[in-house]
Design brief:
This protein is α/β, with parallel strands linked by helices and 352 residues long. It has two domains: 135 residues, 3-Layer(aba) Sandwich (Cytidine Deaminase, domain 2); 203 residues, Dihydrofolate Reductase, subunit A. Helix content is 25%, strand content 26%. The protein has a nine-stranded mixed beta sheet with strand order 11-10-9-8-14-6-15-18-17, with helices on both faces. It has a five-stranded mixed beta sheet with strand order 2-1-3-4-5, sandwiched between helices. Strands 7-16 form a two-stranded antiparallel ribbon. A hairpin with a 2-residue loop joins strand 17 and strand 18. Helix 3 runs parallel beside helix 4. It is elongated, with a radius of gyration of 23 Å. The protein starts with a helix and ends with a strand. Bound molecules: zinc ion. The site of zinc ion has 5 residues, from loops.
Length: 352
C-alpha cells in the first residue's frame, strides 16, 4: 500500500520552495512515481510565469519511465491555457495512470475541469489527500479566487500584558532578536508589507521588501526616511490631500483613499490594493493602525509574538488600540492556529 499522505507532505514541502515568488499563482509541488511506485521525479512552481509543478516534474523525464505511473500534486492540475499550456494535457500525453490530488482548484477557470479532463482520458483520480493542509498552504490564493478579496496578515510583538511600548514610546526591544529575525522571514510570504507614517517617524525602519505600502494621510513623512530607499512604494494619502512634493521618486506610486476622521478608510484601501493586483498584505504597525485593522476589516491571520515580560503600567501602549467596549460578547474572536517557542518568546498565530 502506497502512503500517499507522505508523498503529499513532500509535495507541500516542494511547493514551499516557491514561497514569495508565485503570486498571484498558488504554491504547488509534484512528485512522479513509475509503474513500480518508485519516485522518479519531483518538481514545483518556481515563479509566476514559469512552468507549473506538474510540467516542471514531467519535463525532467525523457526516458518514458512515467508511463503507467502515478503523479501526486497538492492542487488540481489546470485544464486551461494560461501563461503555459494545460498540465492536464501533459499528464494525459505522458500516459500517467493515476493522479493523486491534495485539493481542488476553485479558480473559476479550473474548478473541477482538470479532474474531469483526466478522468475522461481514463486516468484514475484520487482527491482530498491532506486536503486541509493543501488548502492552508495556499490560503492567500483561495481567499483571492473564492472570496475575491485581499488577504490581510498582521504582526504584533508585545509583553505578557499586551503592550508594545512604554508610555514614552520606548519599544526597543520587547522581543528577542530570534523573534525579530523570524518576523522578517514572515514578510516574504506576502505580496506587500504595510505600515503607518507614525511607525516610520518613530522608528525609521528599513523594512526590506519588494513592495511596501505606507499610510500617510497628510504626508507627514518625507522621502529621506530609510523605508523609501528600497523596493516599490505605494504611498497612501487622503483623497483630499494635495500638497505632495513633486515629482515623486521613481519607486513611489501615489494612492489616494477616502478618509474617516482624518484616518484612511481601510475598506476603501484594501479594495483599491486588490484592484492593483496585490493579493496579500502583512501589516506591521503600532497599536492605532493595528487596532483600526482589527475593528474595520477582515484580518485573516495574526502573528502575535509575546515576550515573557510584564510592563505593569496602564499608560503603556497597547497592541490594539480601540474604543470603549463594555461586554466580552463584543470582542473580536479568532481561532488559535499554532503556538511555538522562538528564542525566549512565544509566537501565537490566530486566524479567522
Ligand atoms: Zn498547470
Amino acid at each position: 500500500m502506497i502512503n500517499y499522505e507522505k508523498l503529499m507532505w513532500r509535495c507541500l514541502e516542494l511547493a514551499k520552495n516557491g514561497e514569495g515568488h508565485t503570486s498571484p499563482n498558488p504554491m504547488v509541488g509534484c512528485v512522479v512515481l513509475d509503474k513500480n511506485n518508485s519516485i522518479i521525479s519531483e518538481g514545483y512552481h518556481h515563479k509566476y510565469g514559469e512552468s507549473h509543478a506538474e510540467r516542471d516534474a514531467l519535463l525532467k523525464l525523457t526516458d518514458g519511465s512515467e508511463k503507467d505511473g502515478t503523479l501526486i500534486v497538492n492542487l488540481e492540475p489546470c485544464s486551461h491555457y494560461g501563461k503555459t499550456p494545460p498540465c492536464a494535457d501533459l499528464i494525459i500525453e505522458r500516459r500517467i495512470k493515476k493522479v493523486v490530488i491534495g485539493c481542488r482548484d476553485n479558480n473559476p477557470k479550473v474548478n473541477g475541469g482538470g479532474i474531469k479532463k483526466l478522468q475522461n482520458a481514463g486516468i484514475e483520480v484520487i482527491t482530498g489527500v491532506l486536503e486541509a493542509e493543501s488548502r492552508k498552504l495556499n490560503e492567500v490564493f483561495f481567499t483571492d479566487v473564492e472570496q475575491n478579496r485581499l488577504f490581510v496578515a498582521l504582526k504584533t510583538a508585545t509583553t505578557i500584558d499586551g503592550k508594545i511600548a512604554t508610555s514614552t514610546g520606548d519599544s526597543k526591544w520587547i522581543t528577542s532578536s530570534e523573534s525579530r529575525d523570524y518576523a522578517r522571514t514572515l514578510r516574504k510570504k506576502y505580496d506587500a508589507i504595510l505600515t503607518s507614517s507614525a511607525t516610520v517617524i518613530a522608528d525609521n525602519p528599513e523594512m526590506k521588501h519588494k513592495q511596501k505600502i505606507i499610510l500617510d494621510t497628510n504626508f507627514k513623512t518625507n522621502f529621506d526616511y530609510k523605508i523609501y530607499q528600497q523596493g516599490d512604494i505605494i504611498l497612501v494619502t487622503s483623497e483630499n490631500f494635495n500638497n505632495l512634493p513633486l515629482p515623486l521618486p521613481d519607486n513611489v506610486t501615489l494612492l489616494k483613499c477616502k478618509t474617516n476622521n482624518n484616518k484612511i478608510d481601510l475598506n476603501d484601501l484594501t479594495q483599491k490594493l486588490y484592484e492593483m493586483k496585490i493579493k496579500s498584505i502583512f501589516v506591521e504597525a503600532g497599536g492605532k493602525l493595528s487596532g483600526d485593522f482589527i475593528k474595520n476589516v477582515k484580518v485573516d491571520k495574526v502573528y502575535h509574538f509575546v515576550a515573557p515580560k510584564i510592563l505593569n503600567d496602564n499608560s503603556g501602549k497597547s497592541c490594539f488600540d480601540g474604543d470603549f467596549i463594555q461586554n466580552i460578547s463584543e470582542t473580536k474572536c479568532f481561532k488559535t492556529d499554532s503556538v511555538s517557542k522562538i528564542g525566549n518568546d512565544i509566537l501565537i498565530t490566530y486566524c479567522l
